[in-house]
Amino acid sequence: MNTFMQFTVYGDRSQDCLNAAKAEVIALENRLSVTLEGSDIWKLNHSGGEPVTVGDDALHLLKTTRDLGDKTGGALDVTLYPVVKAWGFTTGEYQIPSEEDIASLLEHVDYTAVTWEGSDVTLPDGMAMDLGSIAKGYAGERCAEILREQGVTSALLNMGGNVQTVGAKPDGSGWRIGIRDPQKGVSDYLGVLTVIDQAVVTSGGYERFFEEDGVRYWHIMDPDTGAPARSGLTAVTIVSRSGALCDGLSTSLFVLGLEEAADYWRDQGGFEALFVTDQNEIYLTAGLAEAFVLTQDSGYTLHILEE
Ligand code: AMP
Ligand code: MG
Q1: pLDDT tens figures, 74-103
Q2: Ligand 1 atom at shortest distance from the alpha carbon of 254
Q3: Helix H segments across 87-200?
Q4: Taking a C-beta distance cutoff of 8 angstroms, is the pair 128, 81 a contact?
Q5: How far is the CA of 116 from the centre of ligand 2 (A)?
Q6: End-to-end CA distance of the chain, in Å?
Q7: Which residues, 6 or more positions from 251, have their beta carbon under 8 angstroms from its beta carbon?
Q8: Is the C-beta atom of 64 inside 6 A of ligand 1?
Q9: Quick check: 248 and 137 in contact, CB under 8 A?
Q10: How far is the CA of 80 from the centre of ligand 1 (A)?
Q11: Would the CB of 33 count as within 6 Å of ligand 1?
């Protein structure tokens, strides 16, 4: 998954459990990767519009991203892949595509065109998709499930900056998760979030980006413009029990911006969020008011969003 992961598992059989979790990540990578030949997603992208029989994981994530796409007015769109590629985010050979190029690529972006019957999925010819917006969070969720099935009651899974926790720390206290400062102000961390048995997933403009003529271009794209999403948010952290939900939402709410994201939270619920704006403000949903501690002298102002 193109990142560094670190798992900490407590208990008697922790080494066996660690091995099982590691095997699950590798299996998921083999099924969901956009680049590995033979993965479900690779097969879809090379299907020429013919149906492909996919595994349960790919199908589940297709349904989840479809649902989130529908609920966010299309802010999450798994068929943006050709656009992401045109900006160079898949290879690191960054460039600003021409407006004509973006416009013609956007003609083949539409997550609602992906259809399925049972586990036979059809991606229209000329389109391509990737699950980069949700796969890491899902991998964390699956690993946590496997650990819980094996009786683990305490584990911390760091999936390249996205965190999945199982239970509490061995002493019963919550896990303290540092939330990165998108601008690296007085501290690398703008604060600490304490959670038990939850996933904590962040999408930020600082994670993968390039700069040209003093402008920063990041890897989270607005499907309406085919360009990096400029919503006034610099980072979005989502907290919920489901890593996949967290990951899909962190990306799509980043695209929506504060106001629409807050409305989404009020309408849908089922998660908590921390929004960082380019005006040095942090907005916490009410459920995180107690769990979050701001770094002293961070330079950020804290606000609580009420239901
Ligand atoms: P994340 O880091 O979870 O926010 O996911 C970002 C990744 O998802 C990018 O590297 C792209 O591969 C993909 N992506 C970017 N923008 C979108 C979007 N609006 N909808 C779906 N996937 C996206
Ligand atoms: Mg995401």
Answers
A1: 999 999 999 999 999 999 999 999 999 999
A2: 4
A3: 99-106, 135-149
A4: yes
A5: 23
A6: 36
A7: 76, 133, 134, 203, 220
A8: no
A9: yes
A10: 8
A11: no
Separation of alpha carbons 81 and 123, rounded Å: 13
Instruction: Give the number of the ligand closest to the Cα of residue 76.
Output: 1
33 exposure class (CB count in 10 Å sphere: 0-12, 13-18, 19+): buried
Alpha-carbon dihedral sign for residues 296, 297, 299, 303: positive
For Cα atoms 122, 126, 130, give the angle at the middle one, nearest 5 degrees.
Answer: 65
- Looking at ligand 1, which atom is closest to the CA of residue 65? 21
Give how far Cα 249 sits from Cα of 74, 82, 106, 203, 265, Å. Answer: 12, 21, 22, 9, 10
C-alpha 171 to ligand 2 mean position (Å)? 31
**164-208 tens-digit pLDDT:** 999 999 999 999 999 999 987 667 899 999 999 999 999 998 888
Sequential pLDDT tens for the chain (307 residues): 889 999 999 998 889 999 999 999 999 999 999 999 999 999 999 999 999 999 999 999 999 999 999 999 999 999 999 999 999 999 999 999 999 999 999 999 999 999 999 999 999 999 999 999 999 999 999 999 999 999 999 999 999 889 999 999 999 999 999 999 998 766 789 999 999 999 999 999 888 899 999 999 999 999 999 999 999 999 999 999 999 999 999 999 999 999 999 999 999 999 999 999 999 999 999 999 999 999 999 899 999 999 8
pTM value?
0.97
CB atoms within 10 A of CB 133: 27
Say which residue the tokens 């501290």 belong to. 187
Q: Which ligand is nearest to the CA of 78?
A: 1
Q: Report the separation in Å between the CA atom of 12 and the middle of ligand 2, taken as the mean of its atom positions.
A: 33
